[in-house]
Design brief:
With 918 residues, the protein is of the alpha+beta class. The chain folds into six domains: 119 residues, Sandwich (Immunoglobulin-like), CATH 2.60.40; 81 residues, Immunoglobulins (Immunoglobulin-like, Sandwich); 111 residues, Immunoglobulins (Immunoglobulin-like, Sandwich); 232 residues, Alpha-Beta Barrel (TIM Barrel); 179 residues, Sandwich (Immunoglobulin-like), CATH 2.60.40; 72 residues, Macroglobulin (MG2) domain (Immunoglobulin-like). The protein has 15 helices and 53 strands. The strands form 14 sheets. An eight-stranded parallel barrel has the order 23-24-27-32-33-34-35-38. Helix 10 packs parallel to helix 12 and helix 10 crosses helix 13. The protein is elongated and about 115 Å long. The N terminus is likely disordered. This is Alpha-amylase family glycosyl hydrolase. InterPro entries: GH (IPR017853), GH13_cat_dom (IPR006047), Ig-like_fold (IPR013783), Ig_E-set (IPR014756), Secre_tail (IPR026444). It comes from Jejuia spongiicola. One of its GO terms (molecular function) is hydrolase activity. Belongs to the glycosyl hydrolase 13 family.
């Protein structure tokens, strides 16, 4: 599990600014001195006694949205540059904008429409939420309703005072549901006592007339209506359901809640009795008709007249704070957030979604005992953070020999720039990487190359934007409430981040199962890697760090239940991989049940590559060494969590005389030896992205391997580092590819259950005995910094051929020691020139120049070239027999990123990214 930043909870409620802020004057203009009074009651600052600071700017007519603040004072979190409020009471503070807005904010001639402000405590760990916006009026006649607030809710027969104020003397009038209730002549204030004698929606309007000019303001309030109890129709899932008959049904599990309304673009985001959800036990539901099939709608649930939340089972959300930073290239035509109608995340749906036509319909998953997994973070694997960009590198991965890609979390996470382990919506694809059809294209393209796709899922915890947290929240203690159906108020293990799921709860089980099923059914993913699966426990003492890895029968039962659901109801051969790291007795039970489990051998392999004998034993990579029945250890030398081997090789490598591991070339050679041993031990393997090229950029800051404070930050993409021109790196690439291809082409040898290891010291030996009896293999390596003798334990005498050096030896004494130079490795078999599929990266199809302004060439003979835009529309086709380096003219295409699907005369297909410039 990763060390990720623990963000404070964002309690997304719908509050107009007047519920926490008042101003003098009531109707402020840009030329006024304005006193803002903040009442912290009910906020994160409730009861706080220290200094409160304002992070503030303005919204102007040039702002693109309410997140586009202008003329911000100081910088976020720097109290030395932020205005300090004056405490005026136990929970009240004042901020004075003086002498006027243009002077205070240095806004010049810009027309200011709102003051934007967030109030924060001195340490920045508590603040007002959501952002507060104070309207600034134009000079002259204006009117505002001072009571009640917009969207206020009342009970039948409640009596209230309706009041309004104008900026100058005028004739005032109050109306309720378009019926005049009160008038006043030549004044600035008006009020009226009013009793609600019926339920439902009410419109309150205030108008001010002076001479021939009239200004009005209108708000909506609601008088509570009774929720109807009715049995939910059968066959529905939680969340949005398309019934196939033009109607849709929404389902929300919300135990202990009384009233839920559906609000959205289809009802102008207002409370409407026709959209009050029916109740069946703990479940609320509502069927809606009359919608436009081709319109995308945004929606939320309004719960118990106090809380607005997105659908926990959202398949897509709109984020008011982060969507603006997603480019149209990554997500073409992203729906605009309903600014002014909603706050916080909103869900969306569309009845007639753009269908995706799957091309690869006969994909067969690789045998899980022989998976070769490439762990990938889309953000740091591509230059554009996109599935589309990642597709252009699939030929590279196929050529390398990868048969599985494991994507770090792609479900909706907080922000756009993340490793993804701060999830908010477990069933929604994060838009920062592209559209749903982009991801389907990625999976489809992988399957067409024989590559499976596994996604990393994060069910240990949820983060603050999750509706599962918001629906049941203890604001006083800033944690999930004791009655939260999904989340524990306090974590049940010592290394939790975010808010800990209770996996013994039936509600959590339903949530996990439904969202897992969605990823398989909708996107055809082939399996899951469960992040921090050891956290799926309710039985551990979080203060006892050592105990939580102990054998836990309840945790085993929970995991087996999830696996049974997937294997019996969704996909019988889905991969189920655990990041567990519990006691071997527990992992043995899970491995024998069919799970695969991560096997972290990073430290031990790095000891070898650096040249140190201490803790150089890598036998834990072997399932037989763990006492397991099946080869279900997903071993790895690097994952996203560890410092890169090459970084430590160069920083701390051992030396002897002129042999120095800190030399780049030497360090890369030793990575070759590590690869020979790593892939030679039977069982599934995982490679962290660019490890095949000896990636040597630190996981931490600026290459400082002791500073982990920015381990989550972006890292350089290998495609930009010139690795291809480094012959030593390409040697490592080719050795890695050779080992991968050997594993795939000769599984009876490289996944044999008949093998012998001697891998405890720096001199290592692997004996693989072919179950068919045709290809026995001996692998030896020396990780010392001096010449060493290694006993190869040949199974037979005669001639043995080294695959890598194309040399041979005549073995007369099978146990006679071999002398190996520092870092030397050999892979012997009785087969001369042991051949595998060509893995030379130089054979890849390439387009150049790229980017280009008018044309490009391809370095291979091709039959057809089809050009697609990022929506999947074919925009250009070249048909014929084109010689190597033929020029393809695309000067008529608009500047953008395109995908070129290239077919050769051998029916081989390649997809390349083409960047078209002006």
């Amino acid at each position: 599990m990763k060390k990720i930043l623990l963000f404070l909870f964002l309690l997304v409620v719908s509050l107009s600014y007047s519920q926490s802020v008042t101003t003098i004057p009531v109707i402020p203009t840009a030329s006024d001195a304005i006193t803002i009074t903040f009442d912290a009651t009910g906020s994160e600052l409730d009861g706080y006694t220290g200094d409160v600071y304002a992070h503030t700017g303005v919204i102007t007519t040039s702002s693109t949205s309410n997140t586009d603040w202008k003329h911000v004072i100081g910088s976020w979190g720097n109290n030395a540059t932020q205005p300090l409020l004056t405490r005026t009471g136990a929970n009240t503070y004042q901020l004075v904008i003086s002498p006027d807005i243009p002077t205070y904010y240095s806004s010049g001639a810009d027309v200011v429409t709102d003051i934007a402000v967030v109030f924060r405590n001195s340490t920045g760990n508590a603040q007002s939420r959501p952002d507060i916006f104070i309207p600034i009026y134009a000079a002259g006649l204006n009117v505002t309703i001072t009571n009640p607030s917009n969207e206020s809710v009342y009970s039948l027969n409640d009596n209230i005072t309706i009041s309004a104020e104008s900026s100058i003397n005028a004739d005032l009038e109050l109306k309720v549901n378009n019926v005049s209730e009160q008038t006043a002549i030549n004044t600035t204030t008006i009020s009226k006592s009013y009793t609600f004698t019926s339920t439902g929606s009410f419109t309150i309007e205030a108008s001010a007339t002076e001479n021939s000019e009239t200004k009005t303001e209108q708000i909506a309030v609601y008088v509570k209506t009774t929720t109807q109890n009715e049995t939910i129709p059968t066959g529905l899932e939680n969340g949005f359901n398309d019934n196939g008959d033009g109607t849709v049904t929404f389902v929300l599990q919300a135990p202990l809640k009384t009233d839920v309304f559906l609000i959205g673009g289809f009802n102008n985001w207002t409370l409407n009795q026709n959209y009050q959800m029916k109740k069946d036990g703990d479940t609320f539901w509502l069927t809606v008709n009359g919608l436009d099939f081709n319109t995308e709608y945004a929606y939320q649930y309004f719960v118990d007249y106090s809380l607005k939340v997105a659908d926990p089972y959202s398949k897509k959300i709109l984020d008011p704070n982060n969507d603006q930073f997603i480019s149209n290239t990554t997500y073409p035509g992203l729906m605009t957030y309903p600014t002014g109608d909603a706050t916080g995340n909103v869900s969306t749906f569309k009845i007639n979604e753009t269908a995706y036509t799957w091309q690869s319909n006969a994909f067969v998953k690789p045998n899980k005992e022989n998976l070769i997994i490439y762990e990938m973070l889309i953000r740091d694997f591509t230059e554009t953070d996109s599935f589309i960009d990642a597709m252009t590198h699939l030929d590279y991965l196929e050529q390398l020999g990868v048969n599985t890609i494991e994507l770090m979390p792609i479900s909706e996470f907080e922000g756009n720039d993340s490793w993804g382990y701060n999830p908010s919506f477990h069933g929604a694809l994060d838009k920062a990487y592209g559209t749903q059809n982009h991801f389907k294209s990625f999976v489809d393209a992988c399957h067409s190359r024989g590559i499976a796709v596994i996604i990393d899922v994060v069910y240990n915890h949820a983060f603050s934007q999750s509706p599962l947290a918001q629906l049941y929240w203890d604001s006083g203690n800033n944690k999930p409430a004791a009655n939260n159906p999904w989340l524990n108020p306090d974590a049940k293990h010592p290394f939790n981040v975010g808010y800990d799921f209770n996996h013994e709860s039936a509600y959590t089980k339903t949530y996990v199962k439904q969202t897992l099923k969605y990823w398989v059914d909708e996107f055809r993913v082939d399996g899951f890697r469960f992040d921090l699966s050891k956290g799926f426990t309710q039985t551990n003492n979080p203060s006892d760090v050592g105990a939580w890895g102990n054998y836990d029968a309840s945790r085993i039962t929970i995991l087996q239940d999830y696996a049974d659901y997937i294997w019996n109801n969704v996909s019988s051969d889905a991969y189920m991989i655990l990041e567990h790291f519990a006691d071997n007795s527990e992992e043995t039970v899970l491995a024998n049940y069919g799970f695969m489990l991560w096997g972290n051998i990073n430290h031990n392999f790095n000891q070898n590559t650096m040249g140190y004998a201490t803790e150089a034993d890598v036998s834990w990579l072997s399932y037989s060494n763990r006492g397991w029945t099946n080869p279900h250890v997903v071993g790895y030398m690097e994952s996203h969590d560890e410092e890169r081997l090459m970084v430590k090789n160069i920083a701390y490598g051992n030396s002897n005389g002129g042999y120095n591991v800190k030399d780049l070339s030497t360090a890369l050679d030793r990575q070759e030896a590590a690869s020979a041993i790593f892939y030679g031990i039977p069982g599934p393997k995982m490679l962290w992205q660019f490890g095949e090229l000896g990636y040597d950029k630190s996981i931490n800051c600026d290459g400082d391997i002791t500073n982990g404070s920015c381990r989550l930050d972006r890292k350089p993409v290998a495609w930009t580092l010139g690795y291809e021109s480094d012959s030593d790196r390409m040697d490592l690439y080719n050795v890695t590819a050779k080992m991968m291809q050997l594993k795939k082409q000769f599984p009876s040898t490289f996944n044999t259950n008949n093998f012998n290891l001697s891998v405890g010291g720096l001199g290592k030996r692997i004996n693989l005995y072919d179950n068919v009896g045709t290809l026995d293999v001996v692998i030896v390596a020396n990780f010392d910094v001096t010449t060493q003798s290694v006993n190869p334990n040949f199974p037979a005498t005669g001639t043995w051929y080294d695959t890598f050096s194309n040399t041979s030896i005549n073995v007369t004494n099978p146990t006679a020691a071999l002398s190996l130079q520092p870092g030397e490795y050999r892979l012997y078999s009785k087969t001369q020139n042991l051949s595998v599929k060509n893995s030379d990266k130089n054979n890849l199809v390439k387009a150049y120049p790229n980017p280009t302004s008018d044309s490009f060439q391809i370095n291979k003979y091709v039959e057809t070239v089809s050009i697609f835009d990022l929506t999947g529309k074919q925009v250009k086709t070249f048909k014929g027999s084109f010689n190597k380096n033929h020029t393809f003219n695309i000067s008529d295409l608009s500047p953008s990123i395109y995908l070129a699907k290239i077919n050769s005369n051998l029916d081989e297909q390649t997809t390349l990214k083409i960047v078209k410039l002006d």
